[in-house]
Predict the 3D structure of the following.
Amino acid sequence: MKICILQPYLAPYRLNLFDNIGMLNKDETIICYYSKFEKRRKWEENYTLTYCKEVFFNSFIIQTGYEKNIEIPNLVKILSFLIKEKPDVIVCFPNIFGLIILIMDVLFKYKLISWLESTKVTESNTGYLKRKIRDLFWNKTSTFIVPGNETKDYLNSMGFPKNHQKLYFVPNSVNSEFQIKSDELEKKFNNINKTLDFCFSGSLILRKGIDLLLEAIKIVNKEYNGKRKYNLNILGTGEFQVEQIDNVIWHGFQTGDSYIKTIMRSNVFILPSRSDCNPLTVIEALKSGCILVLSKNVGNASDFIQDNGFLIDDLSPRGISRYIISLLECSTEKLQYMSNISFSLGKNITQQNSAKKFISALSDTCF
């Protein structure tokens, strides 16, 4: 049996997942991709896979903004791939490439798996044509793979999965370097009586709520008069203008050990997004033992908040500042308790565990 997984590009956070699938799965796995990183992505371009075959579809790519590319499919390349490889199962999303795969199913007779991260928030402005394409695609889909309950709720709102279709939960995962050790977690709180370290990681764009967070910190600077000190570490670059604010440390774009160390030493991870599918930074923070403060617009956020943080219900500078001040006034024991819950929740979210669940979805689709 031959499996094809169609992706926009070889994202670094997916490489270990794909290699684990290729290593653990007895069937041949081919990763096909059709685009390049958006402008906001600062990743290097030289990523390769060890246990999976790679195929690039040579699309014509136009960068139309900081967060978006437009890809014009190379139909000849796609058709020649299908003729040569004859995949039994194709995993993809119902965009223009998924529509082409759906149409060509008439000739090649493979099974379709839809792998998506969308939520009601991220799809609130989806137009009629996109909804019709998804409806067509999902009616032909055998299996759905989703990372969490909010994506399942979105699918349910669209009338899927139907009786004959299967649904699998495969949480997003990150590299093992982010798993903090028990002794490191304990050391992180040695200084918590004196200073609490907050962290934001993501593109500096309005969609991520960076403007709301900075205004919230200004309110905290003005109104908080407790003894505990605090810092807000901001990791990322973007179109938002950097502003010098008391207690805010701008790190810019970080990668590798320096990025991991900044996340690991932080006590609280805060992400007040206006719209976000399923950010990997939340998993990184969870596995680093961070307390979470997430907006309700962060995809599947409710799956990760279990007495280890807060879901922001008032997404405004004033609303965000209340959660920051509340944590600053928390006892050391309560903060450690919340951090330990994050640590426990994060331990089982691994590339290997996600790969095993992914393989289960593939196996059940094929038989």
Observations:
- DSSP finds twelve helices and 15 strands in the chain.
- The radius of gyration is 22 Å.
- Residues 332-347 form the longest helix (16 residues).
- The mean pLDDT is 92.
